[in-house]
Amino acid sequence: MEIPAINLKAIVLVHWLLTIWGSMAWLPVSFAWGNFTILAIGVWAIAQRDSIDAVLLFLLGMIVTILTDIIHFGIYYPLAEITSARGRDLFHFSAGMAILSLLLKPVSCFFVYQMYRERGGDYNVNFGFPSVTRNRDTYQSIDQQDQPSSPANPFNQDEGSKPVRTY
To answer: 54-59, long-range: CB within 8 Å, 24+ apart, which pairs?
Structure first.
């Protein structure tokens, strides 16, 4: 089964719109700042089509905002007690859009990860720590060494000449 190609512009646009609608009524400013910062990194990933770093940073930011969105919802959802009918409707719309954005983020992360791989990223995320691998394709076998045509002369001297010592 082939994975459909989703444009990065569509992902950023959908999450931008849902973040605007989600932050209209009840979520704090930190929700909007966190999500809009990651969407700005998404714009950077759109602008630099060959950048692996931009897509990786956008992917990691989306993963972090999943966690921060859950924390925001858990802390601020019970505090939104609005008595008027118009305020209640605005709250329900805003909460629905924020929750929809949260539900779409794992799917978006999957597609952004596919874009990361298409741009040449590794299958595993490397944080710079040394790792031990069992890939031995780059090693040369010592059984099949090339034999030089002349005898080994490590100092490139004529065989009849006297060695010169330099101190």
So the answer is: 55/8, 55/112, 55/115, 55/116, 55/119, 55/121, 56/116, 56/121, 56/125, 58/112, 59/109, 59/112, 59/113, 59/116
